[in-house]
Amino acid sequence: MISRRVISTLLILTIAPSLSSRLAAQQHKLQFAKDGSGVFGYKDTPVQPWSNWHVHDPDRPAPKKIDPGCPGTPDQGCAAPSDAIVLFDGKDLSQWHDCDWKVENGIAVAIGRPLATKQQFGSCQLHVEWQTPDPPVGREMDRGNNGVTLMGQFEVQIFDSYNTPIYPDGQAAAIYGQTPPAVNACRAPGQWQSFDIVFFAPRFAEGKLIRPARITVFHNGVLVHHNQEIYGETLHARLPEYKVGQEQGPLVLAAHNNPVRFRNIWLRPIEE
Question: Are residues 57 and 109 in the same domain?
Answer without folding.
Answer: no
